User: Fold L-carnitine dehydrogenase from Paracoccus kondratievae.
Amino acid sequence: MKIAAIGGGVIGGGWIARFILSGYDVAVYDPHPEAQRIIAEVLANATRAWEALFQAPLPRPGRIHWAGSVAEAVREADYIQESVPERLDLKHRIIAEIEDAAPETALIGSSTSGFKPSELRQGARLPDRILVAHPFNPVYLLPVVEVVGGGEAAARACDILTAIGMKPVRIAREIDAHIGDRLLEAVWREALWLVNDGIATTEEIDDIIRFGFGLRWAQMGLFETYRIAGGEAGMRHFLGQFGPALKWPWTKLMDVPDLDDALIDRIAGQSDAQSGHHSIRELERIRDDNLVGIFHALKANDWGVGQTVRAQEDGFYARAPARAEGYPLRLHQARVAGGWVDYNGHMTEFRYLQVLGDATDAFLIHIGLDAEYRAQGRSAYTVETHIRHLAEVKAGELLTVETRLLGHDAKRFRLHHAILREDGTEAATGEHMLLHVDTDEGRTIPMPLTLLEALDRVAAQDTAPHPDHAGAGIRSVRQKEATA
Ligand SMILES: NC(=O)C1=CN([C@@H]2O[C@H](COP(=O)(O)OP(=O)(O)OC[C@H]3O[C@@H](n4cnc5c(N)ncnc54)[C@H](O)[C@@H]3O)[C@@H](O)[C@H]2O)C=CC1
Ligand SMILES: C[N+](C)(C)CC(=O)CC(=O)[O-]
Assistant:
């Protein structure tokens, strides 16, 4: 499938990164003189975030083709994402250029925050294929995309968006600003009033969100959160108690303060004081690291966005064998997240086991011991582990694991992983004994022929001598006699 991106700014850059990292080639047109630098920087941050987010090996990235015109970019495209500035006249001009050059079967998704499909389609030759596909920033991490404009084209677009790990939400009826921005604007307007009236600073408002209800929203949204807030009597009780307050003069929702120079100076000044000591790219990396941490927590709980990440990862694992060329096997990479670092300033000890455990999972999938296999009530349990910590690892480093199979019989196999830093030096090694088990009965059972043959194939490649430390335990330390 061929993708074209028209506009590569904040949002277009995020789309480009998501498609590229998902393995699709993207033709890009953006007349900005520094477009290539800007997009490369966004892609670098996105790559860093995906390496920290996913434990599965990432797909081979797609390639960018820098086009000299809209026509060149869209000529062979199956899906076109338009992300030019939010002006209807400009969007109409771009859509007309796309229609002149793109195949008639190509879908056109617009990132517009506010325009309705009926507005975008004015004057179009094939209007039904033009849709709103409105994402949220950062597009390469946040999965949700509002798809507005119905029919077969929307269904096809949803399939494409799902294939790049997004969660399309189809909106039944078009309205200005769709759904997400309606909600966000209500909060934003109110926040502008609070600053305008001198009631709160930008930092105080952000603190109330990030130390409070913002944390709830990441995992349960509004209605499920309020259901719980109704106590055991649930949503009905909540509405009965707090519904009437909506008619009290709490908010100024419909008015907008005049964004005159004084208010702009106040907001921009407070924002500089709050965050001006970080560059935008640094702030993006801080935001991304935090989002990745939240995604990991939700994945561990099999909840919300964590389920999206897991589904995406399953897809990566399914495509992984193509990447496992050569021996020792390279099935797993991990980017050291900021939260993995301890008070000594380096990756903390249990994260080594996490990287090794994830590499073991990748090996299990490689030999066919995957989710489908486990659903039959069989799995592998690790019963012994020996880790050697050999070098300090800092936040941001990319770790690659090399895996060897040191032995196997009908019920057991012994793995050796070496965690390598980017310069090829060993940061750690791990040796692990795994048993094949019947998970319903909780006992060891022989492996079926398919797994044994897969292990035989790996073992046939393991011709080098075993590492000297294989099979060794922790060195003994002579106990000194206590001195009085
Ligand atoms: N920034 C945000 O938070 C979000 C923005 N959006 C929507 O995404 C769209 C783009 O917004 P941003 O990325 O924020 O704007 P931006 O200003 O960061 O990027 C727009 C890009 O379009 C390029 N451009 C201008 N004229 C062009 C043309 N004729 N052909 C191709 N490229 C052209 C510019 O050089 C620039 O790189 C808008 O429709 C906006 O409503 C959607 C979600 C969030
Ligand atoms: C400010 N905005 C309307 C462009 C924001 C969006 O459209 C979505 C987002 O990412 O918040």
Q: What stands out?
A: The first strand starts at residue 3 and ends at 6. Residues 470 and 484 are 40 Å apart (CA to CA). The two ends are 78 Å apart (CA to CA).
